Amino acid sequence: MAKQLLGKEVNADLNERIKNRVQALREAEIAPCLGIIRVGEREDDLSYERGAVKRCENLGVEYKKYVLPADVSEEELIGLIEDVNKDRNVHGVLLFRPLPKHLNEEKIINVLDPAKDVDGITDISLAGVFAGKDAGFAPCTPSAVMEILDHYGIDPAGKKCVVIGRSLVVGKPAAMMLIKKNATVTICHTKTRNMPEVVKEADIVVVAAGRAGVIDASYLREGQIVIDVGINVNEEGKLCGDVKYEEAEAVVDAITPVPGGVGSVTTSVLLLHVVDAAAKNAE
């Protein structure tokens, strides 16, 4: 039976750190503030927004919401982002994506000031991740992966790590962050040959394939650590990961559950980045 790497334990540690830093900043008359920009009424955006707002309220982080209709013009959205960039009272910005198809998403996200890009979506932020430099912020989901490893004392240094998935949201930045921790990293994707054999060689497996239950016991072996980033809805309407949990749990040493794993840590990382941005702005 594998050890469960529970997000709630990581969150408890993160939230205590955030509260202490918020208190210190407020004593210096700085109120960390998250700006939330949402276009339209997508249910997944609304769900994440509710979670972020609740976490802000619990941890003493202020927030401002900017809601625009789904048919907003590109000029109006860019104008709003430029205004938020100039607002010294807003330290970090969460811009929900994907944007409606009539908008040029790549152009719009790069209007955002990298210093306020707490979700790591701008080209400059991503360049910082790939260069190993502090330019902007890393995306929250791979950052949550690293927080889980750190919390449970899992040091990637010298270990073989496989990342399944090559998106700019999770896969590629997660690989770069593991390399920064001195891991030896292989990225697998849909064109990888003999993927089960490749994955079995890993000490740590980060699964961000975006497909429910795509990784089963045939990919895994004893002694491995599995971080399941996937969030999917199965045929029964229940949340599940990219890993077949019951099969994996019987084989590997430790695994994150879905729900209750990486996804639950992501919002805490977002607010940690807001606090970091507020502290940098104060400097």
Short description:
The chain is an alpha/beta fold. The protein has helices at 7-27, 43-59, 74-86, 105-109, 123-131, 140-151, 171-180, 195-200, 245-249, 262-282; strands spanning 3-4, 33-39, 62-68, 92-95, 160-164, 184-188, 204-207, 225-228, 232-233, 239-240, 254-255. The protein is 42% helix and 16% strand.
Rg of Cα set: 19 Å
CATH class of the largest domain: Alpha Beta
The structure class reads alpha/beta
What is the count of DSSP helices, taking H or I runs of 4+ residues?
A: 10
CATH level-3 fold name of the largest domain: Rossmann fold
Count of strand segments: 11
- Summed over residues and divided by their number, the pLDDT gives a mean of 96
- What fraction of the residues are assigned to beta strands by DSSP? 15-25%
Task: Give the end-to-end Cα distance, rounded to a whole number of Å.
Answer: 48 Å
What's the CATH superfamily of the largest domain, by name? NAD(P)-binding Rossmann-like Domain
- How much helix is in the residues? 40-55%
Largest sheet: 6 strands, parallel
Strand order of the largest sheet: 1-11-8-7-5-6
The sequence of SSEs as H and E is EHEHEHEHHHEHEHEEEEHEH
Shape: globular
**Total domains, how many?**
2
**CATH architecture label name of the largest domain:** 3-Layer(aba) Sandwich
Low-pLDDT segments:
none
